[in-house]
Structure formats: structure tokens, C-alpha cells
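Submission sheet (multi-component)
Chains listed below:
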Amino acid sequence: MVEELVFVNFWSSPFGCRVKIALEEKGIPYDYKEEDLFNKTSFLSEINPVYNKVPVLVHNGKSICESLNIIEYIDEAWSDRSPSFLPSDPYQRSQARFWADFIDKELYEASKKIYRCKGEEQESGKKELLRILKLVEGELGNKPFFGGDNLGFVDISLIPFYSRFYTWETFGKFSIEEECPNLMAWAKRCSQKESVAKSLVDPIKIYDFIFYLNKYLTK
Amino acid sequence: MADEVKLYGLGGSPFVCRVKIALNMKGIKYENFEEDLGNKSADLLKYNPVHKKVPVLVHNGNPISESLVIVEYIDDVWKGLPILPQDPYEKALARFWAKFVDDKCMPAVYKVFGSKGDEQVVAEACEQMQILENELKVKGTKFFGGDNIGLVDIAADFMAYWLGIIEEATEIKFFTKDKFPKLTEWADHFVNCEIVKEILPPREDMVSFFKKRFGKA
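Outcome: structure written.
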């Protein structure tokens, strides 16, 4: 049967980047559709009526929303293609889900404070972000990847934010390399992978985008 | 080798009850440790150092935290009544709706009581609940999981039981049969399932707890 797969995204979205990495890792062919988040189409509201957000994966007309959900779906629907993103052991699987969920719930919100706020709020965002990154670094330990020898669910969940390190460091005036050297080494290791290299957005582009978006939002 | 299953929780917590429902669906016996959230046990802090919250399930010495992660783990490990569908797409839908309940519904609803029933806050909560109501209408089944309860029903346990309790405690009512015919009917069915009824905390205890919590006692 001819598979119809459409990946709907906005170029700067770290959540969309996760999906792109997952598709590239498994070598799954897809059609790409860019949504302009400042001028959303009615197509997006049809395929994601609840949130009207990207990313969305539309597989043979059925839409799957929420990036971590999409990655699990890709892993299960294409279980015949390696690599597997989630471990086969149920306990390891639960730990992968826990950490991906932790990253989802806390990282993005903390990071926004660094570039959207000033003074005390910005400081608290920075402290929070470093706390999160250090916890995650602790979980990595001595492993090359969170998934062990290869990229796994947690690696895919986190690595898109590598594109934002420059933005966070510049706004927050700190160095992630200094604070979390192992995590930095992990990020560089991940970006050697073809799927990640193909998918990560240029950090300067992200910085410019966030810089101008800030100006637009605080007008 | 006998399984050793421990649950660190709080009888009145809807998050803890999600796990209890899941364990009940699989017929798993476990040792319950009731936590005092004002004086958390050393065990809880050891087993959930990241969030320091309940519930935590410890299976043969291995701790798992976050209620929906625990529920999926229970479904992965033990046979018995299935919690998630087998089909990848149906599974993705179940996970989506469970997350919607967690991320959008519950916080919006809980905010109502903190705001003492502010009109705008109530309207926002009703908007989120209407999305759930529509989903159930479209599905046309007794539960979000179909003929039997599944992940989404478990995730929405707060809506089925605690919502009505807090409404009674605060005298702020908005979850009506009028506005939410499908959802109110679902709530009735859910709390009357044997598997659920067995583990729900006593209603009177919950009402007086929330009366104190929201300053009505």
C-alpha cells in the first residue's frame, strides 16, 4: 500500500525538530509542509483542532499531534525499521518516558524566562534552566547517549534545544559548556549523527528569530 | 519469584488513584505507604528525587514516578484488563487525550475554585470541558476507552469524582447535566465501576477536606 505521510511544521520549532530527527533516523519518506505560525492555514486547524499547533504528522489521512506522542507513534507504526527509540525493557521504557516528560514540562518554560524577561524573573529562569540541565546531565552519566549506544527517545526529545543554547547563553550571560560540560559533549556527539545534523536549525537563525519576536511581542 | 510492589501515595489524590485503578485492573497486590505531604518520608525523597511527589510505584526495588508514566508501565508489565489500545494510532489518540486532560482540563477546572468562581475562569474551564464532551459524543461509547475504561478515563478521574466533590464543598457549580450531558453520564458510569469504586476515597472525607482547603469550613 502506498503510504501517505505529511509532516507539518514551522522551521524554528524544537518540537517539530524532534519529529524530523525521528523520521530521518528511521529513513521514512515524507512530504513536508511548512506552516506560517503568524498566518496559520485552515488546514492546520483541521488536522489539529484542539491546539491548532505544529508539529502534526498526518499518516494516511489520520493526524497525530504532540511531538512526544508522534515519536512514540513513529516508533510503533514503523517498528520493523531500526533503530527503536524506546527500550524494549518496560522499566527502561518508563524511565525514558519520565525524562522526556520532564524535559517537556519544564525546559521550554524555564528557557522562555531567560529571553522574555529581565531582572529577577530572568535570573530565576536561568537558575531553573541550569537546575534542569544538570539533572538531565546526571541522568546521562557516562553513557554516550541517553538511549545507550544510540539515539533514543530522550536524546531526540532534548537535542533540538541545542540550537537554542546560543540564545540562552547570550540572553542569560552564562556558558552551558562551563556549567554542564558532559551535556555539551553529548550535544556535539548527537549532532554528528546525520539525522540530527540534517534537522537542527542554525543557532544564529534561532537567536535572530527570538530577538525579533521579542521586540514584536513587547511592542 | 514473587513481585514486590509498593505504592507511595495519598488516599485522596486523583493522581495516586489513577495508579490504584490501573493496579486494580491488573489484579496486582501491593503495599500502600500513606505519605504526609508536610513531612515527606525519606523513602519518597529517595525514590522521586526530581519531583519529590506522589505517586511513586516501586516494583522490585525500581521506582517509577509521574502517574501517567506509571499507568503505562503497569500496562506494559502485567496482563489483565488492557489499559491502552493495541493499534498504534488508537494508542496515539489515547495518549493525546490523556495529556489534554492533564495539561488543559484539570488546571483550568481547579483554577475555578481558587478564583472563587470568577465568571471568566469558569468560562475557560467550560471551554476545555466542552472539548472533552465533544470527543465523547463523537466516539459514541460509554467510556473514552470504549466499552471498558482505558487510559483517558483513568486520566480524567478527577473530573468524574473530585470535581463534583469540590463543587459541593465550595458551592460553585458548573459541571451540569444541562451543559455536559455526555460527560456527566460518563462520570456516573466511571465512579460506579467496581474497579474504580473500590479504591476511591470516601466522599464525606473529601468534602470536608476541600471545605477546609477552600475556606468554607
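Remark: The domain at 88-213 of chain B is CATH 1.20.1050.10 (Glutathione S-transferase Yfyf (Class Pi); Chain A, domain 2).
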